[in-house]
């Protein structure tokens, strides 16, 4: 047991909890704050969403002890909150609930949208809400309710809401982060390549060494290109060219194989723009390279570090395989998403789309990044294709 002290709905609470107790269980079982609903308990449905230090968090996958000294707000604790007051009225007006099971989490996420994204349009609101599942309403009323609050706040700004938004802007670090010396990432230690291959995976030779060991999460994927391996290697070691094929990536400074820049990621409720630096380590003889990077998302104060290892294997004269291994770890509020199967599927689709973009650039040498077909870099379409793939998998379609 550990002693846990935190603030819940404005009251100081101190209790003994086991280190494995989740925040959702702690709120419901220990504090009898049963307005927080648990459903999937895997971080997927969003029904358990509460605010921790004013940011939405999935209480089913957050350890209670991780909230030591923090401020937790549940659906029972919004009585003095201007945004929630407006959202509650709008949810009634637009019939944004039926059974109400998803509503506490839906309201917490909606509050975050209203606070963070004053200019959000319908598409943005839908994407932001996509991490909260409702089995009753069809989302129309929920979206309309959130949009109505955003519109109302534009017409009649509210002093409390303006203060909250100003606080959010102020708390976001503006300085470019200063990084500590980079330690090699544990999950990308070289492994016995032949031993790591299983049926249906990429070919044995040249498989990158990402493995599920140590800290972090590892995702592997790859793509075939109808281009000679040497040409692909030249392209893949040109960091500006590679960034141009990676959705959301921008290089701001380059010094040889070191770059500073930003990568924006959007997955359902998770939106982040990690600013940081990366270094390319290359083994030209084997056509294997590792891009080691780390960065900080200023909005959530989450920190990411990761290694992208790619190995280019010649298969035929004009055909090669690019095996890609991404090993990453997240710290901070976004860490709760890092191990979800959906996120890992998302990364695999990103790798596949990245491959299409690389092929496009190689086959169209006069084109630049802005000529890449937009259909390959839409995060929304990417996410929908992941979810559709999961649904098909559940029902055995395509097996
Ligand atoms: S119960 Fe927490 S996300 Fe579903
Ligand atoms: S209102 Fe029933 S699950 Fe959303």
TrEMBL record:
<dbReference type="GO" id="GO:0016491">
    <property type="term" value="F:oxidoreductase activity"/>
</dbReference>
<dbReference type="InterPro" id="IPR023393">
    <property type="entry name" value="START-like_dom_sf"/>
</dbReference>
<dbReference type="InterPro" id="IPR051452">
    <property type="entry name" value="Diverse_Oxidoreductases"/>
</dbReference>
<dbReference type="InterPro" id="IPR001041">
    <property type="entry name" value="2Fe-2S_ferredoxin-type"/>
</dbReference>
<dbReference type="InterPro" id="IPR010419">
    <property type="entry name" value="CO_DH_gsu"/>
</dbReference>
<feature type="domain" description="2Fe-2S ferredoxin-type">
    <location>
        <begin position="2"/>
        <end position="78"/>
    </location>
</feature>
<dbReference type="Pfam" id="PF00111">
    <property type="entry name" value="Fer2"/>
</dbReference>
<dbReference type="GO" id="GO:0046872">
    <property type="term" value="F:metal ion binding"/>
</dbReference>
<dbReference type="GO" id="GO:0051537">
    <property type="term" value="F:2 iron, 2 sulfur cluster binding"/>
</dbReference>
<keyword id="KW-0411">Iron-sulfur</keyword>
<protein>
    <submittedName>
        <fullName>Iron-sulfur binding protein</fullName>
    </submittedName>
</protein>
<dbReference type="Pfam" id="PF01799">
    <property type="entry name" value="Fer2_2"/>
</dbReference>
<keyword id="KW-0479">Metal-binding</keyword>
<dbReference type="InterPro" id="IPR006058">
    <property type="entry name" value="2Fe2S_fd_BS"/>
</dbReference>
<keyword id="KW-0408">Iron</keyword>
<keyword id="KW-0001">2Fe-2S</keyword>
<dbReference type="InterPro" id="IPR036884">
    <property type="entry name" value="2Fe-2S-bd_dom_sf"/>
</dbReference>
<dbReference type="InterPro" id="IPR012675">
    <property type="entry name" value="Beta-grasp_dom_sf"/>
</dbReference>
<dbReference type="InterPro" id="IPR002888">
    <property type="entry name" value="2Fe-2S-bd"/>
</dbReference>
<dbReference type="InterPro" id="IPR036010">
    <property type="entry name" value="2Fe-2S_ferredoxin-like_sf"/>
</dbReference>
<keyword id="KW-0560">Oxidoreductase</keyword>
<dbReference type="Pfam" id="PF06240">
    <property type="entry name" value="COXG"/>
</dbReference>
């Amino acid at each position: 047991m550990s002693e846990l002290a935190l603030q819940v709905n404005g009251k100081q609470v101190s209790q003994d909890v086991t280190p494995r107790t989740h925040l959702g269980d702690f709120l419901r079982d220990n504090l009898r704050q049963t307005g927080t609903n648990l459903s999937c308990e895997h971080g997927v449905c969003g029904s358990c969403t509460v605010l921790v230090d004013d940011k939405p968090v999935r209480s089913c996958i957050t350890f209670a002890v991780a909230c030591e000294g923090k401020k937790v707000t549940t659906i029972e604790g919004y009585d003095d909150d201007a945004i929630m007051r407006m959202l509650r009225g709008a949810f009634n007006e637009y019939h944004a609930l039926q059974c109400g099971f998803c509503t506490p989490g839906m309201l917490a996420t909606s509050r975050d949208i209203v606070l963070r994204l004053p200019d959000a349009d319908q598409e943005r609101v839908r994407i932001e809400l996509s991490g909260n599942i409702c089995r009753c309403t069809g989302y129309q009323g929920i979206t309309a309710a959130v949009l109505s609050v955003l519109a109302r706040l534009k017409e009649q700004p509210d002093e409390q809401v303006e203060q909250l938004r100003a606080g959010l802007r102020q708390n976001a670090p503006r300085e470019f982060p200063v990084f500590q010396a980079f330690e090699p990432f544990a999950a990308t230690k070289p492994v016995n390549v032949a031993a790591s291959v299983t049926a249906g995976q990429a070919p044995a030779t040249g498989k990158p060494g990402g493995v599920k060991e140590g800290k972090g999460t590892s995702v592997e994927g790859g793509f075939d290109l109808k281009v000679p391996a040497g040409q692909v290697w030249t392209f893949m070691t040109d960091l500006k060219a590679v960034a141009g094929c990676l959705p959301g990536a921008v290089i701001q400074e380059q010094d040889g194989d070191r770059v500073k820049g930003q990568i924006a990621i959007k997955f359902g409720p998770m939106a982040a723009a990690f600013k940081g630096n990366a270094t390319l380590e290359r083994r030209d003889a084997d056509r294997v390279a590792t891009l080691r990077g780390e960065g900080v998302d200023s909005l959530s104060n989450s920190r990411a570090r990761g290694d992208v290892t790619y190995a280019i294997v010649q298969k035929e004269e004009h055909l090669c395989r690019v095996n890609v291994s991404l090993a990453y770890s997240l710290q901070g509020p976004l860490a709760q998403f890092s191990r979800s199967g959906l996120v890992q599927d998302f990364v695999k689709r990103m790798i596949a789309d990245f491959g299409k973009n690389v092929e496009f650039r190689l086959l169209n040498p006069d084109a630049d990044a802005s000529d890449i077909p937009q259909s390959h870099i839409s995060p929304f379409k990417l996410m929908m294709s992941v979810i559709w793939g999961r649904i098909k998998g559940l029902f055995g379609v395509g097996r």
